[in-house]
Amino acid sequence: MRSILGAILLCGVILSSGPSDAQTGDPLSLIASAAVIPFWAAGSFITVLELTSLGENPDMHAFFFNAACQRVFSIPFRMSAHDAAIAATDELGLTFNGLVAFTKSVDNITPIALDSPITLRAHRVDFAFDDISVVDPISARVAEDPTRTWNPLRSAATTITFPNNPPFSHTRWWVVCPGGNIVIDLGGGIPAFPVGANLIRFRAYDLDEHPVFDQQFNCNCLTEIVPGNLNALFNDEARYVEMVTYVAAVPLENPPSFVLYRELRFGPFGGFTGEDFGRAPGMAAATLITGVPQVGAR
Q: Closest by alpha carbon to 35, among 117, 147, 148?
């Protein structure tokens, strides 16, 4: 069971570009104030959390929420200057999917801004498909550019779904719409949270740009969506999908925002099965609606 995890921790396998590659608006750059990241710990999954701390964070706390954004428990996660930590969800006793927020807390209840910037990412390990994927964090504030807040939450996203026939077995969306207790609980020094998405509208096209349907779904915290269950057309051929949280062409000041992850599974194909998982491109809803980049819009 630990063969994949051992490859990460013991052999130093490089799975993706690290924080040193990040630009100022990238969530893999230095994170100030707080960080939120999804995790998977149900069924065949574990998630390995990887953190570094630039300076002292003696009161850092990890608040764990289930997939509906209900707080389950929290634990101290103290770090010293130039410190590093690795924690796996099974070692933390987690058996569900959800979100974890890293902040400071002096009373073990109220999240407030971190003392020092951190870096954070996660490794999503699926033992059923013998697969590892890197998960980006949601950064409350970029330490080197404080105007950049809550990256990569955006009000729109695009993706392509693949048909549910060989060599592909399914396309799945994991939509992260932090809200509920995560929004309410955030305290001093943490920037205002974008309103969490509720209804997300999506428009699907075939690859010849012909519209095929326009639907919507509810998104709350960490929402799993199987496109083929929303509409059978997803099972036939590849589709281009646009998602928006509002339909006005003028950017909203604090729009509903989300992060979209796409999971592809394929096989059996010559006796081989596999999985691909990663963040889909995000943008402002007004950009997608108007077709013109809206500078500064979320």
A: 117
